[in-house]
Write a structure and sequence with these properties.
The protein has 434 residues and is α/β, with parallel strands linked by helices. The protein has 2 domains: 3-171, Rossmann fold, CATH 3.40.50; 223-227 and 254-432, Dehydroquinate synthase-like, alpha domain. 53% of the residues lie in helices and 9% in strands. It has helices at 31-38, 49-58, 84-96, 108-121, 165-170, 173-183, 186-200, 207-221, 231-251, 260-275, 282-301, 314-325, 329-340, 343-362, 369-378, 392-401, 411-417, 425-432, and strands spanning 20-24, 43-47, 73-75, 101-106, 125-129, 141-146, 149-154, 160-164. The strands form 2 sheets. It has a 6-stranded parallel sheet, with helices on both faces. Helix 2 (49-58) links the parallel strand 2 and strand 3 (73-75). Helix 10 crosses helix 11 (282-301) and helix 11 runs antiparallel to helix 15. The longest helix has 21 residues, at 231-251. The radius of gyration is 21 Å and the shape is globular. The two termini are 40 Å apart.
């Protein structure tokens, strides 16, 4: 189907969007046609051992036209990271082997590597999703580790996306639960986007939220069906995740689906890599972090008389960042400095207009942390820090530092600029219920 058929809200036709999206059961047989139309006569198949196994299990008779192990298949390592090294290797293979495009078989990491490699190589690509675990399939960005910093880079969306509901339902249930967690960030990330525009004039458009809103509501209503493997639940989630990616293309940035909650998740990823720990599922982290952001918003909306801080000094701020972020500080500082430059303008607006801003925030329909946790629990997704094996002290530290890693204004910045953080961090942890 075409993207326009996925939702009721019209999608602008002048954008670089995926041309075809297939959602349903038994779609492996469509891959030869899609490959010929969207990846050329000699595509490189890119997967990791698990995702390749998922395709092989779903397609034992090779109706997909997938190759045997050989030069047409690039298998990543068992637990790959989407970093510049992996992207560089994929670029070298696709360019050096005379390939005409890329077929990504996988989910978040595989898709990000393929998307970035295809963009840098000027090649088309399509993706066969093996899990409904994240909302980046249709987006125009890729999340890549650059010098240890999780960085959002512009990239071209896939020409086609295949989400076979039988394959999605057969994936480990925690993957779909993570996809729902990623999707639940929409209300708070949209509020962050609105807030950034209100204080910095950075731009805001209601259309991206309207495009994905109906699909998100349907997916959350089907949350209980995900762990049960219900086809309707997985197809509803797949549809919402694709439209969430589309909303980012329409917005021209990841802002409609990525705010302070994603900064927390990215920071947890970066810290895990530094310490040699295995990464948790991105969406699982985002779901819990969204509860924290929602709780923070409601506490700030109730704040009648902020204790505004003094104008900070960059020399002291940069020293704090160097101490707080250690070996990541050199990558973090340029992001933090850009945002620091707008402090005086934002502070003036907050001092002059906080009652109005507070009232406007209250109209945005930000759900409570309790409502969000109930949806996560229905899907048997992590709904607490304990389920993520994150200690309370680590969460306290993350809430105090996550704002530094990205030049994007979020509720985490607002909490500091109203004087609520750091003293109010433990109040957020308590009221969030996580």
């Amino acid at each position: 189907m075409k993207l326009a058929e996925l939702g009721s809200e019209p999608i602008p036709g002048d954008l670089d969007l995926s041309e075809e999206v297939l959602i349903g059961a038994g779609l492996c047989g469509e891959l030869p046609r899609l490959a010929a139309e969207h990846a050329g006569p000699k595509p490189l198949w890119l997967a990791d051992p698990r995702t390749w196994g998922a395709l092989c299990a779903a397609d034992p008779h090779r109706a997909s036209g997938r190759p045997e192990v050989g030069p047409e298949l690039h298998l990543l390592c068992e637990d790959p990271h989407a970093d510049t090294e992996q992207v560089g290797q994929a670029c070298a293979i696709v360019e050096g082997g005379g390939f005409s495009g890329i077929i990504a078989v996988g989910a978040g990491t595989v898709n990000d590597i393929a998307k970035m490699a295809a963009t840098l190589s000027g090649m088309p690509y399509l993706v066969f999703a093996t899990a409904a675990s994240m909302n980046g399939y249709a987006s125009g960005i890729a999340a890549i580790l650059v010098d240890g910093l999780k960085t959002t880079l512009e990239a071209r969306p896939p020409r086609a996306i295949v989400l076979d509901s039988a394959v999605l339902a057969a994936a480990p249930p925690q993957l779909a639960a993570a996809g729902l967690g990623d999707l639940l960030s929409k209300p708070v990330s949209s509020a962050d986007w609105w807030l950034g525009n209100r204080l910095e004039g950075s731009g805001f458009d209601a259309l991206p939220g309207q495009i994905v809103g109906e699909a998100v509501a349907l997916a959350t209503r089907h949350a209980r069906g995900l762990p049960a493997g219900e086809t309707a639940a997985h197809e509803a989630l797949a549809r919402a995740l694709v439209l969430s990616g589309v909303s980012m293309v329409v917005a021209g940035s990841s802002s409609p689906a990525s705010g302070g909650e994603h900064l927390l998740s990215h920071l947890w990823d970066m810290e895990a890599l530094i310490s040699g720990r295995n990464l948790r599922l991105h969406g699982a982290q985002v779901g819990v972090a969204t509860c924290l952001s929602a709780a923070l918003y409601h506490l700030l909306i109730g704040l009648e008389s902020p204790d505004f801080p003094k104008t900070p000094n960059w020399a002291r701020t940069s020293e704090r960042i160097r101490i707080a972020h250690g070996e990541l500080a050199d990558a973090v500082l340029p992001q933090a400095k850009k945002k620091f430059a707008g402090f005086v303008q934002r502070s003036t607006l907050l001092r002059d207009e906080w009652p109005e801003i507070r009232a406007e925030l209250a109209t945005l329909g930000i759900p409570s942390a309790d409502e969000l946790r109930a949806i996560l629990q229905a899907a048997k997704a992590p709904a607490s820090l304990e389920e993520l094996a994150i200690e309370r002290d680590e969460a306290f530290d993350s809430l105090s530092r996550a704002r530094d890693i990205r030049d994007r204004y979020t509720v985490l910045d607002l909490a500091f600029e109203l004087g609520f953080f750091p003293a109010g961090i433990r109040q957020v942890l308590a009221s969030s219920g996580v």
